[in-house]
Amino acid sequence: MTTLKYRKALNNALREEMERDSLVFLVGEGIGKKGGSYKVTDQLIHEFGPERVIDTPISEASFVGMAGGAAIAGTRPVAEILFVDFTYLIMDQIANQIAKFRFMTGDQGAVPFVLRTQGGLGNGLAGQHSQSLEALFYHIPGLQVIMPSTPYDAKGLLKSAIRSDQPVIFIEHKKLYMTEGEVPDEEYTIPIGMADIRREGSDVTLVTYSYMTLESLKAADLLAQEGINVEVIDLRSLVPMDMDCVLSSVKKTGRLVVVHEAVKRGGIGGDIVANVVEHAFYDLESPVKRLAGRNTTIPFNINLEKLCVPSVADIVEGVREVFNS
Amino acid sequence: MNAKLLKEMYEKALTIRLFEKAAIEQYRLGNIYGYLHPYLGEEGIAVGAISTLRPDDYIVSTHRGHGHAIAKGHDVSLMMAELFGKATGYCQGRGGSMHVANLEQNNLGANGIVGGGIPIATGAGMAVKQKKSDQVVIGFFSDGAVNNGVFHESLNLAAIYALPVVYVLENNQYAAATPYEKMNLNDDLSIYANGFGIPGLTIDGNDVIGVYEAASSAVERARNDDGPTLIECKTYRHQGHHVNDPGVYMPQDVMAAWKAKDPVDRLRDHLDVNESITEDEIAAIDQKVAIIIEDAVQFASESPQPSAEQFLSEIPQF
Predict the structure, then answer these.
(1) I want to staple B127 with a disulfide (CB 3.0 to 4.6 A). Which of A2, A73, A115, B79 is the partner?
(2) Which residues of chain B have pLDDT under 70?
(3) DSSP state of A78
(4) Cα separation of B151 and B156, whole Å?
(5) Do A101 and B153 touch (CB under 8 A)?
(6) SS3 B221
(7) What is the model's pLDDT at position B59?
């Protein structure tokens, strides 16, 4: 095991897959000599050359579509979109072309396409650089959606994403890049679609993913001091979603809280709650709760920004409320 | 040009012509539903351009895509079955008229989104480059697509990476119902190539041999790793945008003038006059194609519907 930063774990995943398979290549803005805005592609251009680490113009729709076409034609591209906010520019290529190609052609061929991007609150980045847009991709049949919270998961899941024959939207978080964790020295991958129970507990099931996993674990530590044992499930992958893991946990605890940073309206949390209500209603002992981003554009002002997404204190209070009802 | 190739091109052009007529008839009978965008009048472009390709070269098509698929050598029975929505169709009835694709013959598919295929064609060119192959891609699209951002972005990408893509702009003069000259100030849309620093030319799309010659040079350039070319082929539809559009906005005298330059008739006349191909040989092709199309309709009619059970069983619960 080696302690690595999240961004370095991603960098190693890209390097290993590029070494393993000459058909893997990268496209994105400033991913070459600059190494990407968050250094995820650092040094790769020196190791693999500009033919495989390809800097692009600011033409998001077309370089993502180009990656999609290259996937259909038998290569394994990994496209980087600097901020998930910019994925609004690529939606036809993602939703109408890449996601649907295999189905609409009667399962001909494969679309081994990966889009890497990052979202979430930064530190005063305002409304066009702070969003959490996973629900958009979650809604589109044909895509896999992965949002890892640890360096270990980031590396293992990115490697699986690159090897997958179905398109993957891989959403990182800007506050996770500098976080550290243990990563095995030997080769490993993590299957897509398996949740990870990050903390076992018997009183309340807390379902979360991405950066909110870290905040939820902090809240769980505080709650344990009051005698409330929270089971923290990190979904890791939103599509496919490991509902078996969620449902069996709810059957054990009888209580459910979902935590995410994206706006509450139309969010992943609503869907998780609906699935639990449909499949485990009689196991619930109390009303469920969604702790999610407010239904607002993120303001620039740092004090206002903080109010937009759940804090550790919000999570503690929300879980306590569910536990006591 | 040798007589064998000309006869092949004539056979393909006629196959497209009769396929489209049969498809319209089957649509009227209710056997084909949804949208159907006939390629009648534009056959010369697909046949002229695709005849320059090797079997392992790629094409990317459009919503008006039957002609490209036939020119690429697809089985018209499997195509007709797809138009009927049958299980035996190229896409198992999941795509229909607007989405015929056959990856075995490197047709990466037609597309329901105007301009949507241009980045895909560009990507196929990138894949060729990554694989260090010498394949070439032809990306077809229309005058309507030229006003979409991905046209400009993609041609620039192909230019800067020197991708082996020939962009064939089928200017049938209408973006659905809107005349192209109302939406562009340039008469010749190939002028856009100048902006990307690549060659661009405008030709008569109804002259199959002219299209073949222009495409040959562009394909050779791409195969030699010298980068992309934009070829604008001027043409005109024989009907409105789709089978249910009577095309009231298309002036009758303009239509008549273009019909007098019909690409299939011109190719046939050329065979007759210049290549000493006998009337009997031409009649034999006519007869063969008519039978193939008749068989295709019969195959499609008799083919089974896709299985509902299988379809439902493959859909994930969550």
Answers:
(1) A73
(2) none
(3) E
(4) 9
(5) no
(6) helix
(7) 98
A87 DSSP assignment: G
Give the Cβ contact number of residue B230 at 10 Å: 28
Q: Determine contact: A67 vs chain B, CB below 8 A.
A: yes
Q: Are A203 and A229 in contact (CB under 8 A)?
A: yes
Q: Which two tokens stand for residue B251?
A: 């002036």
CA distance B173 to chain A (A): 25
pLDDT of amino acid B1: 79
Window 132-191 of B, Cβ < 8 Å to A: 149-150, 153-154, 156-157, 160-161
DSSP-derived secondary structure for A177-213: TT-EEEE-SS-----TT--EEEE--SSEEEEE-THHH
Say which CATH superfamily domain B3-313 falls into: Thiamin diphosphate (ThDP)-binding fold, Pyr/PP domains (3.40.50.970)
Residues of A in contact with B90 (CB under 8 A): 105-106, 108
**How buried is B133 (Cβ within 10 angstroms: 0-12 exposed, 13-18 middle, 19+ buried)?**
middle
Q: Do B157 and A101 touch (CB under 8 A)?
A: no
CA B63 – CA B83 distance, rounded (Å)? 12
- Walk me through the domains of chain A, giving residue ranges and CATH numbers: 2-183 (3.40.50.970), 196-324 (3.40.50.920)
In angstroms, the Cα distances linking B316 to A69, B312, B313 are: 26, 9, 8
Q: How far is CA A294 from the centre of its chain?
A: 19
Q: Which residues of A touch B153 (CB under 8 A)?
A: 57, 59, 61-63
B115, two tokens:
């301009």
Is this structure's pTM higher than 0.90?
yes
Q: What is the distance between the alpha carbons of residues A283 and B243, in angstroms, rounded to a whole number?
A: 56
Largest Cα–Cα separation, chain A? 60
Q: What is the DSSP letter of B304?
A: P
pLDDT tens for A237-252 read: 999 999 999 999 999 9
Domain ranges of chain B: 3-313
d(CA B314, CA B316): 6
Mutation target to probe the A interface, by most A beta carbons within 10 A, among B58, B88, B314, B318 is B318
Model confidence at A289, pLDDT cuts 50, 70, 90, reads very high
Residues A207/A258, Cβ–Cβ less than 8 Å: yes
Amino acid at B232: E
Burial class (CB in 10 A: 0-12, 13-18, 19+), A282: exposed
